[in-house]
Design goal:
Length: 492
Amino acid sequence: MTEFSATLNSQNLKKYRSIINGLQCDASSGETIDMICPSTGLPYATIPRCTASDVGKAVSSARTALTSKEWASLSAGQRGERLLRLAELISQNRDHLAELEAHDTGKPLSQGYGDIDAAAQYFRFYGGAADKITGETLPIAVDYLAMTVREPHGVVASIVPWNYPMQIFARVAGAALAMGNTLVVKPSEDACLSIIETANLAVEAGFPAGTLNVLTGLGEEAGAALSYNPEVDFITFTGSPDVGTLIQSAAARNHIGCTLELGGKSPQIIFEDADLNKALPVIQDCILKNGGQTCSAGSRVLVHQSRWEETVDILRTAFRNTVSGQYKDNLDLGPLINSSQLRRVNTFCEQAETDGIPLIGEGTIAPDAPTEGYYTTAKVYGPVPTDHPLALDEVFGPVLSLIPFRTEEEAIRIANGTPYGLVAGIWTKDIARATRVAKAIRSGQVFVNTYGAGGGVELPFGGVKKSGHGREKGFEALKEFSVLKTIVVSHA
Ligand code: NAD
């Protein structure tokens, strides 16, 4: 069993450290950030508050590692073996990591387990895929051999949000390391402990010093310094559209590429022939999971008018039965991540009430939930006008908006009528309609009679419009985390 890295500091808070060049490090300033438990509102751990000078150290260690014998001489298959070993270590330590993830983010413990298992699966998938991505030969002329090869970008900077730390870290690190890049990861200051522990496991799995650096700190300090660092070759960012804009500007300044995985207001469309018994539990589950703090939550349900009453009745009862509570109690949903997220969600709901949007159903908060925790109830509203913030903006909380429609054309227009384009769900028995609508919707993924909230390690994932660009997950990520080089040999 692995010995994990946290020690206690003078206030009895667990003290975690960044991992730079394979070593556990404090910030050069010595400053720390308190980690607050969303379930109790109390501090329970500290992380280093790294700044630009620490970023410089992490990036130069990644740059040195890139061409080091220990890393550069590994074949793709040998990199894959290390990823498989890391997957195994994550699985062996799943109890510890799941507890850490749930405690840190507030999500129910069962979801913490789901996230750790998914993270292990990412490393397993990319471990197996590392030596299966190939180039092509190109028939240009008789006396030439022309081919393409895939090479690593170099040093990849990864900036990760708090909602699915382990999963998002694993999908980036798995693919980027499989292709031979080295990494500097800046996780969220709100939830990052599972990532730190996994970076420690990576050392045990045989990743050479400097190949996987995890540097903690504030977004506007460590995150900004990392995004502007001229020694970074590629950036992958998952987070809010506003910060995504800053990241893209930083990448442009250094003339490097970036992928942006941003927000969403994903529609679920219920046509007149939909199987509601199948659709509604999935729809409810997707908006409650992680307290609705999921970029692909499916937060708008477009309901054909002929199924409106039935849908409203079922969801009213279902939402009234939901209970929010502490992560360890494994209820329908945990607390939100922090006080500002709670304020944000409450502001949307207050606005809905001021505007007279009917509240169809609302859950409860467990009586023993600590009053300082960041709890809110699950809510379903409708009918929501298509120009209302609840129909257009990402709430990022357990709030579902129902919107009625009459025709297929209207459903498509509403579905495409937000600035986002991440995922969509279509519920119908008519395969021709499902195909037409899937083709007409502008989004990165479309599910028919199911909904994966981005799910599936194998499925390419990413957005269009304000949801971002670039693809992660699946084999597509291996292309995203590599550069194609063309080589032409004359053998005349
Ligand atoms: P955020 O943009 O505030 O923070 C994300 C990360 O960026 C954090 O690590 C943060 O420290 C860092 N950051 C903040 N300011 C920065 C700056 N100026 N320069 C560099 N880095 C900076 O987002 P959040 O609140 O952590 O996450 C919520 C958002 O993320 C939602 O909009 C959600 O939809 C989106 N999200 C998208 C996906 C996806 O795959 N599409 C997945 C999860 C979350």
